[in-house]
Specification:
Number of strands: 0
Largest sheet: none
Keywords: Membrane, Transmembrane, Transmembrane helix
Order of helices and strands: HHHHHHHHHHHHHHH
GO molecular function: transmembrane transporter activity
InterPro entries: MFS (IPR011701), MFS_ArsJ (IPR047769), MFS_trans_sf (IPR036259)
Structural class: mainly alpha
């Protein structure tokens, strides 16, 4: 505590925001794995399990749109703390007797968790804009990359944690333990997080939830297709394919996907170095187009490889590793651009609108992942993925250039 008190106020707040985000992300990843493993053991099919998360994604779209407005009116400290509180409530909803854990009840808990997750994410990403001077764009990029990359790495750790807690404590015990720890973190956040962080000087009207910035609208459209491109094959199609075609058991599938997410997060953290910050260059609209263009052909190449005589496991797993690295750079670059483009007063309005597009892309990708895979197979999902990334690249041509490095 003494060392923490000696840090600059902005750094202390950044560490508090990041710590909240990390704690939430661990429970979010663990909860997803707990639900998947538990309901899989009860005999649910992969598509039925995916349906349990449908409200999670739908409510994410609404929350990002409205959450930015709430952050600008109430302050980001309040929206972050509301998110933490709602996650505790969502966890407690799942501690009821097993007979009460019906599909509608679990979908309701997941809806609450989806609201909590996007309030927390929007608050964390928006807060960084206010903690770094506008002239220090290089520092802003670094801090955003660390926050984004560490979040995804910890989500992968959460997958492992969920499986371990399920084995040690059972479903109810695991969920109750996570709720207790997160409740303590929530209480600490209520006491320590700066009041009125991100509160707009001029009270925004509800109609202001729709962005009026051309750059943010273009970036949001590109983000929608970028994340739709990932989830159209990653959410349902890939796990089902690994299980049904390669014959992997569920622990192999879950462990592999967890390791992939951890690696993906690590690459995100190093994105500033990969995209040229070390040489004094900061990414702009041209960089967003170039990195998306590089990624666009990869899913199609994997699809062609799977339909050839090449070993399917090597083609798919090798392609997935390359896809993860390239996608991580694209995602981290986008995360920096939205924070950089957003106006400082009422920053959460711009960030919330952008992440609404992100959530909508995930929702579209999730729905298509189940439908396209069931109707046409994994190769078709990969072709759709390539088309979506290509659209993201073409949309990115309209993004403005960014300022030079500080």
């Amino acid at each position: 505590m003494y060392a923490l008190s000696r840090l600059a106020p902005e750094v202390r707040q950044y560490l508090l925001v990041t710590g909240n985000y990390w704690a939430f992300t661990l429970t979010d990843g663990a909860l997803r794995m707990l639900v998947v493993l538990h309901f899989h053991s009860l005999g649910y099919t992969p598509l039925q399990i995916a349906a349990l998360f449908l409200f999670y994604e739908i409510f994410g779209v609404v929350t990002n749109l409205v959450g930015g407005y709430l952050g600008a009116r109430l302050g980001l400290n309040r929206t972050m703390n509301i998110g933490l509180g709602l996650q505790v409530a969502a966890l407690l909803m799942l501690t009821v007797p097993a007979a009460w854990l019906t599909i509608p009840w679990v979908m309701g808990a997941q809806a609450l968790s989806g609201i909590a997750k996007d309030l927390n994410k929007m608050s964390a990403k928006s807060s960084i804009k206010l903690l770094v001077p506008d002239s220090q764009q290089g520092t802003l990029y670094k801090w955003v990359a660390i926050l984004t990359g560490s979040k995804n790495a910890l989500k992968g750790v959460g997958f492992f944690m969920g499986g371990a807690l399920l084995a040690l404590l059972g479903f109810t015990g695991a969920v109750l333990a996570m709720a207790a720890v997160l409740a303590l973190i929530w209480l600490a956040s209520l006491l320590l997080l700066k009041k009125d962080l991100g509160k707009a000087k001029a009270k925004p009207k509800f109609r202001d939830i729709m962005s009026k910035s051309r750059a943010i609208n273009i970036l949001s459209a590109a983000r929608l297709f970028l994340f739709g491109a990932r989830d159209v094959w990653f959410v349902v199609a890939l796990p089902v394919y690994l299980s049904s075609v390669f014959g992997w058991d569920f622990w192999m599938v879950g462990g592999f996907l967890a390791a992939w997410v951890i690696g993906y997060g690590m690459v995100q953290s190093f994105a500033p170095a990969i995209t040229g910050k070390a040489s004094g260059q900061l990414p702009d609209g041209r960089a967003a187009f170039a990195w998306a263009a590089v990624l666009a052909g990869l899913p199609a190449a994997i699809a062609l490889g799977l339909s050839s005589d090449l070993p399917a496991q090597w083609v798919l797993l090798g392609g997935l590793m390359v896809f993860g690295a390239l996608f991580a750079v694209n995602s981290s670059l986008h995360s920096y651009l939205i924070v950089s483009y957003a106006k400082e007063d009422g920053v959460s309005l711009d960030v919330g609108f952008y992440y609404m597009s992100n959530a909508l892309g995930r929702l579209i990708g999730t729905l298509l992942s189940g439908w396209v895979y069931q109707a046409y197979g994994l190769e078709a999902c990969l072709w759709v993925s390539s088309a979506f990334v290509l659209l993201a690249a073409l949309i990115s041509i309209g993004l403005p250039r960014h300022r030079a490095a500080d």
